[in-house]
Specification:
Blueprint lengths: L1 E6 L4 H13 L5 E9 L6 H4 L8 H23 L6 E9 L2 H11 L4 E6 L12 H9 L4 E5 L9 E5 L12 H9 L3 E7 L7 H13 L4 E7 L4 H11 L4 E5 L5 H8 L13 E4 L5
Parallel strand pairs: 1-2, 1-4, 2-3, 4-5, 6-7, 6-9, 7-8, 9-10
Antiparallel strand pairs: 5-10
Helix pairs in contact: 4-5
Pfam family, one: Usp
Protein name: Universal stress protein
Family: Belongs to the universal stress protein A family.
């Protein structure tokens, strides 16, 4: 059974991600955890110190969050046919999004987080809002980010950019393998060459990837020296990609995309779901 965490702020973006999750795992036994984190817009020192009851503020906000979660489950049942394989749990917590997700995943088995995302500026070339980037960085759980307005399509073609410099055993790639197997996907591993021959370590990593995805359709592609984002965009032009997966390795190009780059320099012209695979280290 899969445990899928669905953070929601009741926006169109989060609803879009919930719909994607339900459709992606329609044939899987899943428990979906609908998590809403909330904080009062205005509160005073007494509230912070633990005396919200005398003001009634905390109770009112919590009650509103719980009512919204109840309405959300009703919306799900009205939108989708009842699936005996799916179970929904609702949770409202007084917390920030990042802290709330981190706390919840530490308390509960979580195989995947699926969340909607929209660029903070609203510009199409800016893929990820700050909340999504922080989740990528700080949460040690696979995260699948669904772009605003993306309509569900089976992930038949998955792009997996890699520098072949990582130990794949140290990362949580099982969910990617499961998604590929369940959807009969083709994994397109993409390596951007530096102009030099592959090192011994990279060749071993290439062979390791082939063995990891044994049983799935798998192709390995090499592009000549170019920016990784340019390579991703170039590949998407020639092939219909339904999902991009990337390892969150701070010592590879992922760091350049999400750990060093200012948010407004993240230049994926990307309109497909993006799966981030973290390391297994705590």
């Amino acid at each position: 059974m899969k445990n899928i965490l669905l953070p929601t702020d009741f926006s169109d973006n989060s609803w879009n991600a919930i719909k994607y999750a339900i459709q992606l795992f329609k044939d899987e036994i899943c428990t979906f955890h609908l998590l809403n984190t909330y904080t009062p817009i205005i509160y005073n020192v007494e509230y912070v110190l633990g005396y919200p009851a005398q003001f009634g503020l905390g109770d009112a906000i919590r009650d509103t969050a719980q009512e919204n979660l109840k309405d959300l489950t009703t919306k799900i049942s009205q939108t989708f046919e009842k699936n005996p394989k799916h179970k929904f749990i609702t949770v409202a917590r007084f917390n920030t999004l990042i802290s709330g997700v981190k706390e919840y995943t530490s308390e509960h088995q979580t195989d995947l987080i699926i969340m909607g995302t929209k660029g903070a500026t609203g510009a199409e070339e800016i893929l990820f809002g700050s909340n999504t980037v922080h989740v990528f960085k700080e949460i040690k759980c696979p995260v699948l980010a669904i772009p605003s307005g993306f309509k569900f399509e089976k992930p038949l073609e998955i792009l997996f950019p890699t520098d072949l410099e990582v130990d794949y055993n140290a990362f949580k790639i099982e969910i990617l393998k499961q998604i590929a197997m369940d959807n009969h996907s083709r994994i397109n591993a993409l390596h951007v060459s530096t102009g030099n021959d592959l090192t011994f370590k990279q060749i071993n990593s290439q062979l390791k990837l082939e063995s990891l995805f044994k049983g799935s359709s798998y192709l390995f592609h090499i592009y000549d020296s170019m920016n990784v984002t340019d390579a991703i965009n170039k590949f998407q032009i020639k092939a219909k990609i339904n999902l991009i997966a990337m390892i969150n390795n701070k010592h590879s190009f992922f760091e350049n995309l999400f750990h060093r780059s200012p948010l407004n320099q993240i230049g994926f012209h990307l309109k497909v779901p993006f799966l981030v695979l973290p390391s297994k280290q705590p």
